Amino acid sequence: METILITGAGGYIGTYMVEHFLSIGYKVIALDRFFFGNTLDNLSFNKKLKIVKNDIRLLNINHFKGVDSVIDLAAISNDPASELFPSITRDINYKGAVHVAKMAKKAGVKIYVFSSSCSMYGAGNGIVNEKSHLAPISTYAKCKIAAENEIIKLSTKNFCVTSMRNATVYGVSNRRMRFDLLINVMTLHAWKNRKIFVLGQGKQWRPLIHIYDLVNAFRLILEEKEESKINGEIFNVGSNEQNFQVVNIANYFRNFFQDLAIEVTPSDPDTRSYRVNFDKITKTLGFTVSKTIDDGILEIKSALDKGIITDSIQTRTLDYYKYLISADKILSSVKISGRLF
Ligand SMILES: NC(=O)c1ccc[n+]([C@@H]2O[C@H](COP(=O)([O-])OP(=O)(O)OC[C@H]3O[C@@H](n4cnc5c(N)ncnc54)[C@H](O)[C@@H]3O)[C@@H](O)[C@H]2O)c1
Question: Which member of 25, 74, 105, 145 has the greatest number of CB atoms within 10 A?
Fold first, then answer.
């Protein structure tokens, strides 16, 4: 039985991924700082799962003993949160990721998969592929590029390294939902207020992928028999059919919510726009997606109706990190000799 170590396992993608790999027979070591709470606790009965609470920056080779593959998801996970604390983001998303890859290599792990992002295409023109010029805007995107560059160089015959430049993900992940991702947040606002917002006229392009398909792409990497297809390779992860302009997505929501108001604002502080080609992953690995944005919208709507997911502060990455910073300040100012009471 193969053992995978997943960093960032307590997050939106991580919690979903842990459950998926357990369900198909893998042993999983779920490692996370658990900023968003103990999101995996109700899976702890599973004997194939080991939960490790730690920071990726503190790992040593002992953490990788007996591990066959590493999927490295841990990160400050979006562009605005990275601007809240750029130096911490560099520490975690760049130096931390490189540290994980180096430790994994030293420990003799066979496969390392990095969770990168299409965000690094930034404000590009035309349709971009893996060889296109990168035009990062945020600290987040710059750190993904810096980490990817160094990590890919670690690839050898015995250490198979792959970087996955993911499209923006959508869909329900009920242990740590994210309502700061395009489809997810629009569904929430349409469901709650019958109103959605489109910033900057909505002409910007975004590639999208359902969380199930994304996790499946990572599984394809782990199960690829021909190592030469994946070792030292970078893949855009998504599908050509799911590149959308934001305003068109907003209008599409009218199919699911009656009397929907769409408010378009003239400007958007986020100037990213990227339309991405996904031929490489399809041609090399036979990857295709099975879900559409209709599936995503309907499942989120249904999970909101049933109360399976709610609009808590933990679902908004930037707001939650701001909240942690202010809670930390308050506690520090109230404590005397390290004691609250
Ligand atoms: N969700 C998307 O649309 C998307 C798109 C492209 C790439 N990605 C990448 O995929 C990965 C996962 O994203 P997500 O949406 O699940 O984000 P998330 O914020 O839900 O999860 C990130 C997890 O990393 C953990 N973490 C952060 N710093 C850590 C540290 N120093 N040590 C240990 N754990 C730490 C957090 O506690 C959190 O559980 C990230 O690398 C992100 O950049 C996500």
Answer: 74
